[in-house]
Amino acid sequence: MYLELDDIKKSFGEGENRAEVLKGITCGVEKGHICVLLGPSGSGKSTLLNIIGGIDTPDSGTVSIDGEKTAAMNEKQLSQYRRKHIGYVFQSYNLIPNLTVKENIEVGAYLSDKPLELDEIIKTLGLWEHKDKIPSQLSGGQQQRTAIGRAIIKNPDILLCDEPTGALDYNTSKEILKLIEDVNSKFGNTVIIVTHNDAIKLMADQVIKFRDGRIRHNDLNTVKTPAAELDW
Amino acid sequence: MAKTIIQMINIIKRYYIGQPNELQILNGISLDIHEGEFVSIVGASGSGKSTLMNMIGALDRPTEGEYFLDGTDISRLNDKQLSNIRNQKIGFVFQTFNLISRTNALKNVELPMMYAGVPRKERSRRAMELLELVGMKDRYTHQPNELSGGQKQRVAIARAMANDPAIILADEPTGALDTKTGHLVMNIFHKLHKQEGKTIVLITHSPELASETERIITISDGSVISDTLENTAENAGAENTEVSGE
After folding, report:
1. N- to C-terminal Cα distance for chain A?
2. Coil, strand or helix at A157
3. What are the phi and psi torsion angles at B114 (to 5°)?
4. Based on the structure, what is the number of domains in chain B?
5. Mean pLDDT, range A164-178, rounded to an integer
6. Residue B13 lies inside a defined structural domain of this protein
7. Which 3 state secondary structure label does DSSP give B243?
8. In this structure, what CATH number is given to the domain that contains residue B195?
9. What is the residue-averaged pLDDT of chain A?
10. Residue ranges making up the domain that contains B135
């Protein structure tokens, strides 16, 4: 397995307020797969995503990518791990308001050793005619496209998407999911999508269902539905 | 007289042009801001100050009127030219800091210099200098999530200074901070103004914050209703008349 999680546990709070958010998560994801982490709010899926992304650390258990354990890394190595291996897409786009579409995407390139070609990315994202606009001149979907561009231009091994369509309407959500699918097939990044939207699981290679900090189901899809054909 | 950095001549901004809901937000604003001034632009919500700030920051173009920013007429530029002007001439500071997450303070400050093509060594040298200027040198390896609000804003100010812009444009820079931390951040602006001779334009709804600056321009209903510089000039004129009269 490319990404391996072994008995990950995580709690927040102290004493009576202590809440165990992850109660021993063991699973793996193949390189180049799209994996959907599905579960209700508070099920621990975003915490797990942060642990995979190296922004949070587990209380116990290990994360390995391509055989490398993140727990064995020091702060500097961890920061390099994040920069080299991980791209992040959030529900809120976190774009810089005074920078254009092109410049916001370029931010990702500057922080990488092996960036993809800027113009090609902008075209793949369907943002070519908007490349010199600033975020306030864009729709929500265009802003999320820009944020995806910023995450993928550094050519991350793993693209982590935390509710990437959470702030978008139905049609725009489908466009964004199709874009993630296109990026996955074109650049071969492993993609992990956290969502509470059950319909999204059909576009995945692998679906992991969460409830109360535990994995309830971990299945491989034999047939994938293209994102454009999803319905909810 | 110091060089004029911002010259706005009868700026009008309308939205929904030609539609039934056409809206005029700026009603012909004229103002000059000179090199080395620390100016605040004050107005309530809906006064048009955010629209004015977008004009000053070259984030939007006026519908009518002329705007010369450090000698360049902004109203005639296309999107790409506007973005070049913004990167060269303006250092932005926002209420919500807008630092790049999971990227340390040093890299955040270096970022605008990467656009400007400054060589790597020179970039980190200048970024360290700027972090020292804002009192954040020993935090240079920290990422935004490891910094308090006030610390984030200090890093954002250092970033705004990176390419030695003609003006620092700060939009409610203390809006997300408590009073004490807000004062610390204001002190950084005072330092940049006094020590570095920076031209600073502060956009705020708070008359109290504005009173810390040497010139206050008040906006209401899309027009300038007062400008303390003009008052000072009139007073100075009056005094002169008296003196010559004696």
Report:
1. 32
2. coil
3. -65, -45
4. 1
5. 90
6. no
7. helix
8. 3.40.50.300
9. 91
10. 35-61+79-245
Contacts of B94 in chain A (CB under 8 A): 97
Q: Residues B218, B226: contact at Cβ < 8 Å? A: yes
List, for residues A175-228, the tens digit of each pLDDT value. Answer: 999 999 999 999 999 999 999 999 999 999 999 999 999 999 999 999 999 999
Q: What is the value of ipTM here, to two decimals?
A: 0.78
pLDDT over 60 (residue A124)? yes
A99 touches chain B (CB under 8 A): yes
Whether B18 is covered by a domain: the verdict is no
Tokens at A148, concatenated: 């995806």
SS3 A112: coil
CATH H-level, domain A3-226: superfamily: P-loop containing nucleotide triphosphate hydrolases (3.40.50.300)
Q: Is residue B11 part of a domain?
A: no
- Alpha-carbon span A96 to A24, nearest angstrom: 38
pLDDT at position A198 is 92
Q: Rounded to whole angstroms, how far apart are CA atoms A7 and A98?
A: 43
Sketch the domain layout of chain A as residue ranges: 3-226
Residue A78 near chain B (CB below 8 Å): no
Q: Alpha-carbon distance B190 to B198, whole Å?
A: 9
Q: Tell me if chain A has a CB within 8 Å of the CB of B15.
A: no
Contact A111, A132 (CB under 8 A): no
Model pLDDT for residues A129-166, shown as the tens digit of each residue = 999 999 999 999 999 999 999 999 988 999 999 999 98
Cβ burial, residue B63 (10 Å; 0-12/13-18/19+): middle
Distance from CA of A86 to the nearest CA of B (A): 11
pLDDT exceeds 60 at position A98: yes
Distance from CA of B174 to the nearest CA of A (A): 18
CA-based nearest residue in chain B for residue A50: B102
Confidence of residue A71 (pLDDT cuts 50, 70, 90): confident
Closest chain A residue by Cα to residue B58: A98
- Among all chains, which residue has been given the structure tokens 């802003």? A143
- The CA distance from B174 to B197, in Å, is 21
Burial A81-104 (b: 16+ CB within 10 A, else e): bbbebbbbbbbebbbbbbbbbbbb
Q: pLDDT-based confidence at A109, cuts 50/70/90? A: confident
Cβ within 8 Å of A, B 64-103: 78-80, 82-83, 86-87, 90, 92, 94, 98, 100-103
